[in-house]
Amino acid sequence: MYRVAVVGDRESIYGFSALGLDTYFIEEYEELPPMFKKLCQSGNYGIIYVTESTAVLLEKEITKYNEAQTPAIILIPGVTGNTGNGLKAVKESVEKAVGSDIIFND
Amino acid sequence: MALAHVNPTRMELSKLKKKLVTATRGHKLLKDKRDELMRQFLELVKENKELRIKVENQIKNANLGFVLAKASMSEETLSTALLAPKQEVYVEVSNKNVMSVDIPTFDVTTRTPNKNDIFSYGFAFTSSDLDDAVQSLNDLFPDMIKLAEVENACRLMASEIEKTRRRVNALEHVVIPQTTEQIKYISRKLDENERSTQTRLMKVKDMMLKEAHSY
Q1: Domain assignment present for A74
Q2: Where along chain B do its domains lie?
Q3: Does a structural domain hold residue A59?
Q4: Is some CB atom of chain B closer than 8 A to the CB atom of A20?
Q5: Which listed residue, B36, B57, B79, B161, has the most CB atoms within 10 A of its CB?
Q6: One digit per residue, pLDDT tens: chain A, 106 residues?
Q7: Which of B87, B127, B141, B144 to mutate to test the interface with A (most CBs of A within 10 A)?
Q8: From the CA of A11, how many Å to the nearest CA of chain B?
Q9: Would you give the end-to-end CA distance of chain A in angstroms?
C-alpha cells in the first residue's frame, strides 16, 4: 500500500492535507533536497505531487526518478500561479519519443 | 565502407549469413515494436495534455478558494481546522504491461468510505469558503490521480521509444549494411580464389600435356 505526498510551499498545499494526503512544507531551502530524497527513497509513496515553484529547486532529484515506476513525481501549479513547467515536462517527453514536438506546436 | 577485417573463409561466411538473418528479423520486430509504442504513446500524450490543462485549471480555482478562505479567517483557526485530517488516502499500484514497458496504474482507496470525512473540522468557526475550497480539491483529486498515472506512463514510454528507436537505427544503418558488405567481400574473395585455382589447374594441365607429347 502506497501513500500520496504533496511537497511545496505551505500556502499552495495545506488544503491537500484535508483530503488525507501527506503534506510536506518547505521552511529552509537547504533542507528541501535531502527531505525530498528521503521521501522518494522511503518507498512509502506511490505518487508525489510537487508544486512547480518547488520543483525548480529539486530539478536534479526529480530527473533521477524520471524513469522510475514509483514514485511518480507530478508537477502541479502552486498558489503563485502556473509557470507552465508541468506542460513543458509533457512536451519534453514528446520530444524525447518522437524527435520533435508534434503535439504542442500550436 | 571501412570494413572490420574478416577472414575470407566459408565458416566466416556462414556465420555472417546467420548474423544477417538474425539482424533482419530483429530489425523487423523492433520496428513493429517502435511503431506500436509510438501509436499508443501519441494517444496517451494527447490525453495527458488535456488532463493536465484541466487539472491545472481546477487547482487554480481551488487555490483561489483557499486564498479566500484564508482571508476571511484567522491563521490559527485555519491551521487548527486542517491540523488533524480525518481521511487518509492509499494508492494500490499494479503494473500494466504495454509492449514490454511496465506501466504502473494507481487505484485509490480511502481509509473511511464516508465522503464527508474530508471535512476535518466543525463548521462553527470556519468560513464556508474553506468548505468550498476543500470540496473543490476533493472533486479534482480523481483527475489528479489519473494525471499521475498517464503522465508517468508517458514518461516511461518515451524513454522506451527512444531506446527502441536507437536500436532500430543501429540495426538498419550499421549492423545490416556492414554484414551485407562483409558477406559480399567474402563471397567475392572465395570466387576469386576458385577462379585462380581453376586457371592454375588449366595451366598445369597444359604444361603436363606439353611435356608428355613434346610439342
Answers
A1: yes
A2: 10-207
A3: yes
A4: yes
A5: B161
A6: 888 888 888 877 877 887 878 888 877 777 788 888 888 888 888 888 888 888 888 888 888 888 787 788 888 888 777 777 788 888 888 888 888 777 776 5
A7: B144
A8: 8
A9: 41
CA distance B107 to chain A (A): 10
Nearest to B56 by CA among A17, A84, A42: A84
Give the DSSP letter string of A52-92: HHHHGGGHHHHHHTTT-SSSEEEEE-BTTB--SHHHHHHHH
CATH of the domain at A35: 3.40.50.10580
Q: Which fold has domain B10-207?
A: Helix Hairpins (1.10.287)
Domain around A52: 3-80
The number of residues in chain B equals: 215
Q: Which amino acid is at B95?
A: N
SS3 string, B66-89, reads: HHHHHHCCCHHHHHHHCCCCCCCE
Q: At which residue does the C-alpha cell 528521503 appear? A: A38
The tally of domains found in chain A comes to 1
Measured CA to CA in angstroms, residue B192 lies from B8, B152, B177 at distances of 11, 59, 22
- For residue A100, being part of any structural domain is answered with no
Residue A47 located in a structural domain: yes
Q: Does A19 touch chain B (CB under 8 A)?
A: yes
Burial class (CB in 10 A: 0-12, 13-18, 19+), B132: middle
Give the ipTM.
0.86
How big is chain A, counted in residues? 106
